[in-house]
Structures are given as structure tokens and as C-alpha cells.
Amino acid sequence: MDYLLPGEIQTVDSSENLEDMRLIDNAMGSGHILVYAFDVFMKMYAEQGYSSRDAALSIVQNNLYGLEIDKRAYQLAYFALMMKARQYNRRALQPEKVKLNVHVFEDTDTVSPEFLDALSGEYADDIKQIIELFSNARELGSIIKFDKTFNWTKLRENVEDMHTDALDIFGMNQSKKIVLKVLTIGEIMSTKYDVAVTNPPYLNKFDPDMKKYVKKNYADYSGDLFSVFIFNNINLVKIGGYAAYMTPFVWMFIKTYEKLRSYLVANKEISSLIQMEYSAFEEATVPINTFVLKNVPNGSNGTYIKLSAFKGGMNVQRDKVLEAIANPDIDYLYRTNQANFKKIPGSPIAYWVSNHVFGVFANNEQIKNVGDSKKGLDTGNNSKYYRYWYEVNSNDNKWTPLNKGGDFRKWYGNHNYVINWQNSGKVIKENGRANIRNEKYYFKKSISWTDLTSGPFSGRLTPKGFIFDAAGPSYFGNNLLTMLAYLNSKVFNTLAYVTMSTMHYPNGQVGNMPFKIPAKPITIHIESLVKNNVMFSKTDWDSFENSWDFKRHPLLLHIADDKQTEVGGRLENAFAIWKTEAQDRFDQLKANEEELNRIFIDLYGLNDELTPEVEDKEVSVRRADEERDIKSLLSYFIGLVFGRYSLDTPGLAYAGGEWNTDKYQKFVPNKDNLLLLNDDRYFDDDRDIMNRFRTFLAVTFGEEHVQENMDYIAYVIGKKADNSEQAIRKYFVDDFFKDHKKGYQKRPIYWEFNSGKQNGLKALMYLHRYDEGELAMMRTDYMYPLQSRYEERIEKLQQWVQDESVTKTKKQLEKKLKHVTQQLKELKQYDPIVRHVADQRINLDLDDGVLVNYEKLQDGNKILSKL
Fold first, then answer.
1. Three-state secondary structure call for residue 120
2. What pTM was computed for the model?
């Protein structure tokens, strides 16, 4: 067989004796391969002048072999192959004349001790060894490994000559039958074939017996069972024979399979390979490839087809393969010599790479030789030792900033976590499960990135004071700015795709990447651009309250600068100013990134392969978004009401610790740690959210502009209501807590008390101001007065209904009456539940985090809105 492409046998040796050409389907549940191979052999036999009748019997008896571990799959394969033979020869259904070489593995653990005792002669020990090897055959299947060569004919004769008792009280006949089957399978496994084909199992979590066996016999290829099959099957074939596979394509790139790649590149020839699109199989999204290995050392270029750009299912994939076969000049077909793969650390099967890129890897320094690329700690229990920074008391020094990777973001940011590193991490180090790696690098300035992501590599400059964990590997060195520019460049991402195309960026592989040190004048220019990029990214990151360096909402910057006249009291103008600033920042960062790309493309000589342009989606600072930004202003307002923020004090005013009233002058927080979210106005004081909101707008934009700013906000948030106040009120009642949960990764700091579907009582409190008397205060100062207001409203509505003569208006009043009546009922039912929790005077500890504390107060999903 000269050339075998997955899915198509294109040219075949004109063997004088086709009966000597044998194919084994060594899969688990893939008997359809035998059926396909049958059709191929029929064409080959016809070319040699055989009749269809003779060819069919010869093929199933001499050319096709199949092994299965699943009995049902074996039966289906056997039946399908028999029907193919019957299509051409009726004698195929006469089992005494036609013997198929398709078998299912048999365990030998049922072979009786008496049978073993009865074995004798010079082959007895060999037979016992085979029986022992097959004791777990239904699990191990064809990866059972023989340590010696057996004389299978003599072994079979020895067993066949054994005399068994007709009464067979010791199971001798059954044992003999099993052993003969096993010897047949063993001979098939030790035979060398022209072709071996498999769609092996994808399994990397083994039961203890399998794990022990694989580690003992296939240690270098034990990352997954499919990789064991790759190694095993290429050694099932003759010198010059072929092994064809369908497997996940991760073996081509990731470190787990580096020894397998090195073995194949050094000892076998990758004849052809097709890398499929992720969703090629509609039933499942699996990274699949299909490929053919030839059992010879590398001697010629392999053929590779890259289908990752072609979506639409397996029919599209098939058509694109046929197009490539018909037109070898098509741009997604590659021919390369696998010897090139050894030029790249880890020997990835990077068949699409140009000779120039191979030269970049071969002729430049590696990152690990100019700095230190390190993996961080594993605590063994992140939920115990990690917190989002906003969960804990900001004055508690036990919590230390932590780099933990995060979303795609370049230059600066993703500072979301803190870790309990009190007393140099004493409690973590003593838990017995932690792996404290590279502690001497903690708190140093670094470049951090996300180990596992769904997108391109994105590096961020991290200031001093951080610890880093395994999910956020970090680089340390004296050239941080230049290295950060390189890591965020198109050049690096192009090279990284060669070795890390699975979007997995471990520190070791990043450290193996090539790096060319620029000349000093170029370095100075690079560093200047990077400083600006970091500044742009930091300004963007700190413009939102999820940053611990957030100072004041960007739509309120006119309070502290010279933009008062430009804003003119109108929130819409403030947004327009912010929109322009955000767009300018975005455009300048994009221009800087393209300039850096130009520099590195020139430096690495990749002008013929890359262009410097950056797509908008790859610029990771945010443009203005009217709805998002107005809603974030409403969130900032809630923070002002509770004293988390102050219009007089930049940044956090209160996040635990001692309360200081001197911080609040322009806008004074609520005295109580509670804010009602009523769907209508029931109070004319600080208990009502819209009273507070009007005060906030008057202070920030002027009393005379309150209504027009209310109208603008109502328009932006898009809530349907009779007027702007009702629209904004409706947002706070229906949507604020949902948005807050989402923005705070389901770790809300403003908690919502919720009596039920009728919104009889909805109220917010600020976690960091909670005390044990919170719920008792809520009952006496809020719930009881609200109950009285409901009762008063019901009386008025009843009277209005009675007096109303216009039918439409009457129905509207009746609907409102029904709703308020239901709210009152719900509130009364909620009261004993709140009282039960209030009487417990539950203590919350901020160190425990939101989830633990929320569950304490929730009392079985009865008090608070669900997370």
C-alpha cells in the first residue's frame, strides 16, 4: 500500500497474492471500519481479476481481522461483515464453510483450577502465562502486552489434546473452550498486519487495575488510553505497514503527549493527517483528527489537511477533503517533513508552519533564559482560602492580593481575588494538601497571564504585593515592559499557537518560546508604548467598582474637576464626555498595539506572514455602553446610600471597621442599614429608594435638572411605566439585584430581603454594615410601618373602587386593590419567618465570605432572594 489518506485508499500495491494483505480493526465499537475495508478490498480483488463470489469469501477469511471488548459491538460487527459477504456469495451464511476473523475478548478468571492443574508438557507454563495475561481481557483488550514470542500452533495443540470428563463437574470443557478462544485472539494480536485501523477509547481516568497496567507497560504514553493505542497499533503492523486512527488532536500539541510525539517523529512516518473542525461531529464538540502512520523511519514529506475553518458538520468536512485530494494546491493542504517538528520545543505537530517560523524557533534565545517563568501555588482548598476582594473587611491585613488568571485582558487588570496569607500562609501550609511553589517570587513585580483560556494569550503587568497561583502563571525579570509587549504581540500569539494551540498556556511552555532581545533604541520605544498601554488599561479597569482602586463613578467626575460647565447639570452630557474619553483611550491603545506589532514583525522577519492590524475585539479596554454605564451609576448610588462610597472621599469610604460620619457631607448615607424597594411610594423619607435617588441627582447634577435626568435614565434602562420615576423604581425592584449578582460573580455585597412573588417586602442591606440586630430593626422600623401603609392604601382603594363610575378606571383600581391586598397578606406571612431568624441574632463573619454568610442568614431559602 503506497499511500493511504484517512477516508480514502488512493493507490494500492498490485500484490500477486492479495490474501497476504491483511487489515485489523483494533477498535472498541467500530466494526463499520471492517465493512468499509471490505468494499476497498473488493475493488482490489476485481482489479486482479477475481470474481466477486471468490473475492468475498477470501476477504472475510484472509484479509479482515477485528477485535472487540464489547460483546454487543462484536455481534454487530460480525453480522454486518457477514451480510457484506452474503451480498456477493450465498455460501457466506454457511458457518461450517466460512470462518470470520472477528472476535470478542474473553476474561480467563473463570478458568477452573482443575484445568490449570491438568496442563502438562513443555508448553504448560506458556499457556498458564497467557491465561494470566487475559484475566482482565475485557477491560485491557488489545493493549495486553506479550513479553515473549509464543508458538501458538503448539499451544493450541496442547490444549486440544487435553482430555476432559464428559460429566465435567469441574468446568473443564468450558475452560478449554475459553482458553482456545484466548489463544486464537493472542495469535491475532501477535501477528503483524499490513494495516491497523482504530477509533480508540478516549479515557484518562482509569480504574486501579487499568492504571497499574498502563503505567507498567506504557508509561511514556499513558496520558490517555487513545495515546496507548497510537503507540500499540503502529507496532501491530509490518515494516512498511500503515496504522490509521481517529483520536482527539490534543496529542499533537500538549505536553502530556510529548513523549509520544517524540517517539513517532523519531521512529515512524506521519503519512497523512486531517485536523477537523471542533464541531465536525454534530453529536459532540470534540477536538478530533484522523491520521495515518507508516511503520518506517521518516523519509518523505507528510500530507496534512487543516479543516478547522470549515464549519457545518461532517458533510462539509468530507467535501473539503475530497476537494484537497482533487486539488493538491488548495491552501488548507500542507506538505512538510516531520523532522522540522523537532526544531520546536516539545515537538508539536505544527504542519502549517513555514520554514521561516521553524527558523525563528531554532535560531533565537528562549524566554526562560532571559527571565523566570513560574507556576504559582495550589492551596488544595481554594474555597476556604480565597475570596473576592470585595467580600472581606478591607481593613483586615490577613488578606493579600492574588493573581488567579481571569478573562482575556491585556496590559493591566483582573485583580479580583485575595488570599488568606496571614503569618506567611501558615494555615494553608499546614493543611496537608497545599503545594506552595516558588514562594521566593511572591510579592514581586511580574507579568501574569491566564493558564487555560478560550482565546489568545494576554499578559498583564502586576505591581508588587501579589501572590500568584497555578491558574495565573507569572514571568519575573528585569525586562518586564519589553517582554509584556512581546507577549501581547501578534508575533508571540502566532508562535504560541504552534506549541499551545489548545489555548493552554502553562509556564513551562511559555518559557520555551523564542525571544529576540531588541536593540536599545527599539527597546526604549517599546517601553514607552507599553507604559502608555498599562496606563490606559489601568484607567479603564479602575473606572468600574469591581476594582479596588475605583475612586468615583466616571459619570460623576465633573464633581471633582473642571467639567461642570461642559456637563451643564445633564447626565446625558456627562455620558457623552465619558463616551469620548473611552473611545479615545480605545483608539490610542489599538494604535499602540499595532505599532508594537509592526516592531516585532520586523524584528522576527515575519513581514511576509503577518500584518500589524488589531481587531477591535482584541482591544481589551471598554468603550462606553449607555445602558451598562447608567446601570453602574445606579449601583454606585446604592453604595452611596449605604456609605460604601462617599461623594467627599475618593474610593472606598466604608468596607468594614470603624464607621466615620465625617466622611459624608454632600450625601449622607441612611442611618439604618436598610433601603426599601417598594413598587410604589409608601414613605416620604429615607426609607423609600426614589426619595433617596432624587436627592442623589439633586446633589450631583442640581435640583433644577432632576426630572430631565430621571427621564433620561428611564429611557436608557428601558423599563415600561407610566412615568420615569416608576420606570426607575421598577428597575430597582425587578432587576437591580439580578444585575448586582452578575456583576459581583454571585458574591453580592448588597443583599436583598424578599418576601415572595408579590414583592410584599423587598429591601436591600449592605453586608459590611450588618449586625445581629438587623432583622429586629427591619421588623419594627420597616415591616410594621409598611403593613400600616398597605392597610391605609387598601382602605383608599376600596373607597375609590366604590366611587368610580368609569368601567376602565374601575377595573384598573380593582387590579391595584387586589395586588396591594396580596402584598399585605404576603408581608404578614413573611413576618414570623423573619422573627424566627431575628430571634437567633445570627453573627456574620466577613472572613467566611459571601456564600457561607448568605447561607447562615438565608435560613433555608426563606429570607433572602436566591443566589
1. coil
2. 0.85
